[in-house]
């Protein structure tokens, strides 16, 4: 994201009011002695004038630029190739370039942005977002521990009846609300109305409350956790206890208000309604009835307001705990160097799903007290009202609680098992998305798809079990009160006691309260159980062992590094002995690979560096070399403090900059990746750009250094990423530089430039540890450290080691001899050679040209028309929030996925039967009560009179039998409904998962390059969780309540037909409120969905870059960004919940009118309507008061949750798929390709239809068993040859044939499975060594061991405890980069394809092993056709022919000898330039 202070600006020489005439050129710099070419620089000479970086850019001011010439030494972008001598001259003095840059900056000619004239404009939305983020810093407050009542000063202000709102429009209105607004949620009314009128945008939403912010609450929770650990010790500390302390006061207040609310709800039916129904059968005056009616309405009105207050308190409690827990988790990650036994997927899942569950835990969990409260109150009241025979009915309640407890335990157990499998699935998806290009090129889609399908199958089985258990609980909760009432009445009447209408309907109305208590208890138990699981998972993160700081300070100021007898270890994966258990372990739900890793979660410390004694003086350049796995990277990590010090001491003086072997790139602009939140200093910045040879690279980027870089640097080559990482280190201006093989991804000439300008030049006064496999640089190091098996084998100057030692001397001699052998194969002609730029391209850079020149694959949620707001340089498109209603097509898709309309109708029928049987039981009771004694005469003594006792009715047996049978009808239909509904909804979620997975996995590479992983993970984690768990629960309750409302309204209208006109008016009011304000709720939900993805992406980026973040000390920067992103999500999440409650209160008040109207109708129609039926209407009308708003709110919530269905559906429908995997009619023979002949004919390719061609009429033929080298500068089209060969992008024109077959006619699997690639960047998967080499189990162990032997990894693997079954952790982190590369080579050997494509894969391997590998490649693949993209020219000298690519065309194609014989050939000039670099060494 572009930062506001880095925008385009103007110099003081060109004020804003005076446009600069771009047609006139500024004076040219005088040529310095270094300048030999005064021609105009073709791309980067057009620079805007400079302006102080602290000035704010004008969003809509015209951009003024000026055409100038910069010294070629500053920006080497000439496409002319310089002579060898000129190249050497230009490397003479670093000070000259500094002077040139200083002069340029002093004159104001060097701008902050390079390419404004080529169409780049400021992304105003990004700047507005940055300014919004700055407002968070302005509003935020620091947590300070208070004492006494002062802690509650802010909260108590909410009890002031009315308060003035804040003057700042973007501040959360809630912070300055009075009691009325706080209870009624009127502070959100303006937002709801704006949503209805114009829709909500990001700018309309206020920023998060300063009291709810992540940083504020994290500090408080962290303080409490530290106190807990200090008091109880790490082993006895309880995070659950800390959470309770965090929410204690608000929890108690919320519970007390809730109990008061329940009491009011209890008083209504038990007192006011009972006396009102009694009054209907009496002759008391109408004023008495009016008192009971007003009392009933008033008590319900106060209950509604108090219930709103409960949610106001609980929502803020939940949002604060949610922010505090996730903030604390992130801060813990910042203290880790690795994740240990945790996977990235598990961490992302914690931030994705556990955030919601910890919120539900504290918002809904405490309401569990409502169940026992209403149950006890109900039992006491019914015993008082009906006598001891009512105990038979109350036993139903007493038996239900142990049943509910058992259900909750079972639910918790199944939830834990489900979470384990979900973690595994998300982890696998994260791994798949990170390595999707290699998977596609190896045609391993089926293997990974089957892995995901197998995991999903296990997850679905657990989800089904959990769903059935929850469905039983959900079905029983509303049924139990009804059954209890039926049994109570049957027992009471059967014992001969009378039952009046007032008694019966007050009990029935009370069952509505009991129903609420039972239902809320079901949910609360579930949320409490899930919350406890989350708290335990979070505690597991918090208790992860942090590496103890061991870095001290050297005794002498002149010493930069001191290691004395240091033995250091890594946390290594070790197998834990499994105890024999009869019962099934939760790990039985995991895959074999994850079982292995789960069992290996016990961490042991494996020593890798032994007895290291080393002292490095300040300003010294220490070269470090050694074989693969010798401990070079571990030495660097030890100086960063990332290992475990077993013995000895390690001391480092000064600040540290770190460049890893695998560069870590942010999804930010090119410039922001270098600055890394440091203030912009133009001189430092351009020195870093030049020293790292990035000038031309910036020149070809669409928006210069303001171009957005994708996740993992997807639109940069391997060399560009490495040099950007070096520029970041140089710009940081630290004291100590740790460079872990930084030149492995660049060619000899670029490497020479970096070594001279950066390592020997810009860092000449710095202490530098330089790890390298390129031994030609070692003679220029002050000293050389040679490592062998984790020990210092040799240490001294180059000359000393050459003279006095044998091992290093032999290694260096062997390296130089290999170079000399290559030199003998070509004719040298150094005259007239000219210099050219060359860069490296790693395997996942195949799409770099396309990404540089075109906009990314359109997001499926985007409209089909082109997004005009997209600007050049912006790679990742913003995730678009859908507008308007959820279309019926989305519901149609869900119904079809659930089995179709017939199946769905049958499921709905089960709801009708269930609710109908319950309603019929009430109607039957009304008939029975209305019939009374059946006018039966009773004789008492000598007096006979008409009985009023219902037990005397002659039809009593008939009434009792039907009433008793309804128990089984209600119970049976409840269970049938739950089973049918859960079965169909899980079928729908599984089908949708499979559809979107296949669609995403079958998408072209451009989709993965331009879509953040966090956005895709959001689909497969949170959105799938919504569809798997939350949507079915919401939908089931919604459908059930719909039928309950219909039955209630039918009863009221049947008893009081006069209510129909009133119902019409109320229905219109309900419809209007829902129509108007559901839009705001839906928009808040969509904004919440969209705001989650950046959080997940940031967490994923952080986990991958922990080493770099810690090395640069940027923990605070990344923590701050996380908290800002999380606050944005928290804000809309909180507003969504408050909007739901806003709607609920207003609907509750309107529903209260139904009760009021029914009560007044019964009052006015006394004598015309039987009291039994009036009681029926009153009981169901009172039930409506709560259930109506809940159902309307559920409809909105259901629609909001259907946004997840919409998002998944949009991906499943909107993504464009690749060509078919297999075309039956075009399948080649099993032996194809038999010869390996490759023919390109006028091949044209563009990465997208609207972008320029990147390959222009490429034509060449490769014979069988030829070894072809491909060379050329960055952007020349080298990697594009691999792209079209593997059909990652389809051809625009021309054809490619392999053994005479046009590959465009083949299925992708048939094509890619017959080819092999060895990438520059090694990729290993979670699993075992064997799984990584042979995922399909196609080869025997003997073949695998043979391949390992040929790649010199046999000894390493055989030393592991489990040999081939040894675990490989995420990203293969338990192997060095070189070892990972060798395993990738063994994988290619096993594949034994006829055509092998190599993106020179030996850069991370030491020279000795490299020589052996080159020999292995020549022998093992001698019968194969090999195409090698060359980064080091000596590699291609042994090739049979060489292709020289230039601007997407084949410039030259011949043998190395022929090309070298022509001094004017491009290849000859490139070799001469490389020779000059060697001579310089």
Describe, in plain words, how this protein is organized in 3D:
- There is one protein chain.
- By secondary structure, the protein is an alpha/beta fold.
- It is 55% helix and 10% strand.
- The chain is built from 43 helices and 28 strands.
- The chain has a 6-stranded mixed sheet with strand order 9-10-11-7-12-13, sandwiched between helices. Strands 22-25-26-19-27-28 form a 6-stranded mixed sheet. It has a 4-stranded mixed sheet with strand order 4-8-5-6, with helices on one face.
- A hairpin with a 2-residue loop joins strand 20 (1293-1298) and strand 21 (1301-1302).
- Mean pLDDT is 76; it is low at 1-94, 107-123, 574-588, 590-603 and 826-878.
Structural class comes to: alpha/beta
Unreliable residue runs: 1-94, 107-123, 574-588, 590-603, 826-878
Main sheet properties: 6 strands, mixed
How large, in whole angstroms, is the Cα Rg? Answer: 37 Å
Task: Please count the helical segments.
Answer: 43
Provide the residue-averaged pLDDT. Answer: 76
State the shape. elongated
Determine the N-to-C terminus distance.
Answer: 40 Å
Q: Roughly how much helix do the residues carry, as a percent range?
A: 40-55%
Beta-strand percent range: 5-15%
**How many β-strand stretches?**
28
Major beta sheet, strand line-up: 9-10-11-7-12-13
């Amino acid at each position: 994201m572009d930062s506001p202070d880095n925008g385009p600006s103007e110099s003081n020489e060109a004020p804003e009011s005076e446009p600069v005439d771009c047609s006139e050129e500024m004076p040219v710099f005088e040529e310095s002695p270094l300048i030999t070419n005064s021609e105009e620089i073709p791309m980067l000479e057009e620079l805007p004038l400079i302006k102080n970086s602290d000035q704010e850019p004008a969003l809509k001011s015209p951009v003024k630029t000026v055409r100038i010439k910069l010294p070629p030494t500053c920006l080497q972008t000439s496409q002319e190739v310089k002579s060898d001598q000129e190249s050497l001259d230009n490397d003479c003095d670093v000070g000259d370039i500094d002077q040139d840059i200083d002069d340029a900056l002093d004159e104001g000619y060097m701008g902050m942005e390079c390419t404004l004239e080529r169409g780049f404009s400021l992304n105003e939305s990004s700047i507005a977002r940055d300014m919004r983020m700055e407002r968070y810093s302005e509003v935020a407050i620091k947590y300070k521990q208070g004492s006494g009542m002062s802690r509650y000063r802010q909260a108590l202000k909410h009890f002031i009846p009315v308060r003035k709102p804040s003057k700042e429009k973007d501040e959360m209105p809630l912070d300055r609300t009075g009691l009325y607004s706080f209870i009624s949620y009127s502070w959100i009314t303006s937002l709801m109305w704006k949503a209805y009128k114009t829709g909500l945008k990001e700018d309309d939403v206020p920023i998060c409350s300063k009291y709810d912010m992540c940083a504020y609450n994290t500090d408080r929770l962290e303080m409490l956790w530290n106190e807990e650990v200090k008091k109880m010790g790490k082993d006895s500390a309880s995070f659950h206890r800390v959470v309770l302390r965090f929410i204690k006061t608000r929890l108690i207040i919320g519970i007390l208000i809730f109990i008061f609310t329940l009491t009011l709800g209890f008083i209504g039916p038990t007192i006011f309604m009972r006396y009102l129904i009694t009054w209907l059968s009496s002759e008391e005056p109408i004023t008495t009835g009016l008192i009971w009616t007003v009392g009933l309405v008033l008590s319900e009105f106060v209950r509604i307001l108090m219930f709103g207050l409960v949610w106001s308190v609980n929502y803020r409690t939940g949002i604060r705990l949610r922010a505090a827990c996730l903030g604390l988790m992130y801060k813990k990650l910042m203290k880790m160097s690795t994740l240990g036994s945790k996977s990235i997927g598990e961490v992302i899942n914690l931030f994705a799903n556990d955030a919601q569950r910890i919120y539900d835990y504290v918002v809904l969990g405490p309401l569990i007290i409502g169940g026992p409260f209403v149950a006890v109150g109900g039992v006491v009241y019914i015993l008082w009202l009906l006598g001891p025979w009512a105990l038979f009915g109350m036993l139903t309640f007493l038996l239900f609680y142990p049943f509910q407890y058992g259900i909750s335990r079972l639910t918790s157990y199944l939830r834990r098992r489900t979470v384990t499998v979900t973690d595994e699935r998300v982890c696998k998806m994260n791994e798949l998305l990170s390595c999707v290009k290699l998977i596609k090129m190896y045609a391993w889609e089926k293997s990974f798809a089957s892995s995901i399908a197998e995991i999903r199958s296990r997850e679905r089985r657990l989800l089904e079990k959990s769903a059935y258990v929850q469905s039983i609980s959900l079905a029983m909760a509303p049924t139990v009160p009804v059954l209890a009432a039926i049994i109570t009445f049957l027992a009471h009447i059967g014992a001969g006691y009378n039952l009046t209408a007032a008694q019966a309907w007050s009990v029935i109305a009370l069952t509505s309260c009991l129903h609420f208590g039972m239902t809320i208890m079901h949910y609360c138990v579930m949320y409490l159980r899930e919350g406890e699981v989350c708290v335990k998972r979070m505690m597991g993160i918090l208790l992860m062992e942090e590496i103890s700081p061991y870095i001290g300070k050297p005794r002498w100021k002149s010493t930069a590094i001191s290691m004395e007898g240091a033995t250091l270890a890594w946390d290594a994966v070790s197998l834990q002995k499994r105890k024999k258990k009869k019962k099934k372990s939760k790990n039985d739900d995991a895959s074999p690979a994850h079982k292995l890793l789960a069992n290996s979660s016990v961490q042991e410390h494996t020593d890798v560096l032994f007895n290291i004694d080393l002292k490095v003086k300040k300003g010294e350049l220490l070269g470090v070399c050694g074989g693969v796995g010798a401990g070079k990277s571990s030495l660097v990590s030890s100086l960063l403090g990332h290992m475990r010090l077993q013995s000895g001491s390690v001391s480092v003086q000064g600040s540290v900059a770190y460049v890893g072997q695998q560069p870590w790139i942010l999804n930010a602009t090119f410039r922001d990746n270098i600055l890394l939140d440091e203030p912009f200093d133009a001189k430092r910045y351009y020195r870093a750009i030049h020293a790292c040879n990035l000038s031309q690279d910036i020149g070809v980027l669409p928006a210069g250094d303001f171009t957005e870089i994708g996740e993992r640097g997807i639109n940069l080559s391997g060399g560009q990423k490495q040099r950007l990482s070096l520029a970041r280190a140089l710009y940081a201006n630290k004291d100590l530089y740790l460079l872990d093989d930084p030149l492995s991804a660049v060619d000899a000439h670029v490497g020479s430039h970096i070594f001279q300008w950066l390592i020997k030049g810009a860092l000449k006064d710095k202490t530098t540890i330089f790890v390298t496999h390129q031994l030609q640089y070692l003679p220029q190091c002050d000293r050389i450290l040679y490592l062998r098996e984790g020990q210092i084998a040799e240490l001294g100057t180059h000359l000393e080691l050459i003279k006095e030692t044998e091992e290093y001397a032999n290694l260096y001699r062997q390296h130089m001899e290999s170079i000399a052998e290559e030199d003998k194969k070509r004719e040298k002609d150094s005259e007239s050679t000219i210099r050219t730029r060359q860069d490296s391209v790693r395997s996942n850079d195949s799409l770099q040209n396309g990404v540089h020149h075109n906009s990314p694959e359109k997001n499926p949620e985007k409209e089909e028309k082109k997004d005009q707001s997209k600007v050049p340089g912006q790679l990742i498109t913003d995730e678009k929030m859908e507008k308007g209603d959820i279309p019926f097509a989305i519901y149609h898709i869900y119904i079809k996925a659930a089995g179709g309309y017939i199946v769905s109708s049958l499921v709905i029928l089960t709801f009708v039967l269930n609710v109908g049987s319950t309603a019929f039981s009430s109607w039957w009771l009304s008939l029975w009560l209305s019939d009374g004694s059946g006018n039966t005469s009773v004789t008492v003594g000598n007096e006979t009179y008409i009985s009023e006792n219902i037990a005397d009715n002659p039809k009593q047996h008939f009434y009792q039998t039907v009433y008793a049978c309804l128990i089984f009808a209600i119970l049976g239909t409840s269970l049938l409904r739950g089973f049918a509904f859960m079965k169909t909804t899980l079928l729908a979620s599984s089908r949708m998962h499979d559809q979107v997975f296949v669609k995403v996995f079958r998408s072209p590479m451009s989709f993965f390059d331009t879509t953040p992983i966090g956005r895709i993970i959001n689909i497969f984690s949170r959105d799938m969780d919504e569809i798997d768990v939350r949507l079915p629960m919401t939908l089931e309750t919604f459908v059930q309540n719909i039928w309950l409302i219909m039955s209630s309204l039918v009863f009221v209208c049947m008893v009081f037909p006069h209510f129909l006109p009133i119902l019409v008016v109320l229905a219109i009011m309900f419809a209007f409120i829902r129509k108007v304000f559901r839009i705001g709720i839906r928009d808040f939900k969509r904004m919440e969905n969209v705001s989650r993805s950046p959080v997940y992406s940031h967490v994923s980026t952080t986990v991958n870059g922990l080493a770099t973040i810690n090395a640069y000390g940027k923990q605070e920067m990344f923590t701050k960004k996380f908290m800002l992103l999380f606050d944005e999500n928290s804000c809309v999440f909180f507003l969504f919940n408050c909007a739901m409650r806003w709607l609920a209160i207003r609907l509750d008040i309107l529903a209260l009118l139904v009760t009021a109207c029914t009560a007044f109708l019964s009052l006015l129609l006394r004598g015309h309507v039987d009291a039994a039926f009036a009681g029926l209407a009153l009981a169901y009308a009172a039930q409506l008061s709560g259930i109506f708003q809940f159902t309307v709110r559920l409809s909105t919530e259901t629609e909001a949750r259907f946004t997840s269905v919409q998002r998944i559906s949009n991906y499943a429908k909107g993504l464009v798929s690749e060509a078919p995997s297999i075309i039956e009619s075009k399948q080649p023979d099993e032996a194809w390709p038999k010869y390996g002949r490759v023919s390109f004919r006028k091949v044209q390719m563009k990465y997208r239809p609207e972008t320029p061609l990147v390959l222009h009429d490429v034509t060449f033929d490769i014979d069988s068993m030829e070894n072809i080298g491909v060379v050329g500068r960055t952007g020349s089209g080298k990697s594009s040859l691999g792209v079209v060969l593997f059909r990652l992008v389809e051809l625009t024109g021309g054809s490619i044939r392999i053994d005479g077959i046009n590959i465009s006619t083949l299925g992708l699997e048939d094509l890619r499975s017959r080819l092999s690639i060895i990438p520059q960047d090694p990729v290993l998967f979670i699993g075992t060594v064997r799984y990584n080499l042979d995922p399909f189990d196609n080869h025997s162990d003997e073949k695998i061991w043979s391949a390992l032997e040929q790649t010199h990894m046999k000894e390493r693997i055989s030393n592991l405890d489990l040999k081939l079954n040894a675990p490989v952790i995420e990203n293969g982190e338990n192997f060095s980069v070189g070892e990972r590369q060798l395993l990738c080579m063994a994988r290619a050997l096993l594949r034994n394809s006829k055509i092998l494509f190599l993106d020179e894969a030996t850069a991370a391997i030491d020279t000795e092993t490299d020589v052996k590998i080159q020999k292995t490649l020549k022998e093992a693949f001698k019968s194969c056709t090999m195409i090698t993209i060359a980064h080091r020219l000596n590699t291609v000298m042994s090739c049979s022919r060489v292709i020289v690519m230039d601007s997407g065309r084949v410039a030259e194609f011949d043998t190395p000898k022929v090309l070298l014989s022509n001094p004017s050939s491009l290849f000859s000039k490139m070799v001469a330039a490389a020779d000059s670099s060697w001579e310089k060494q």
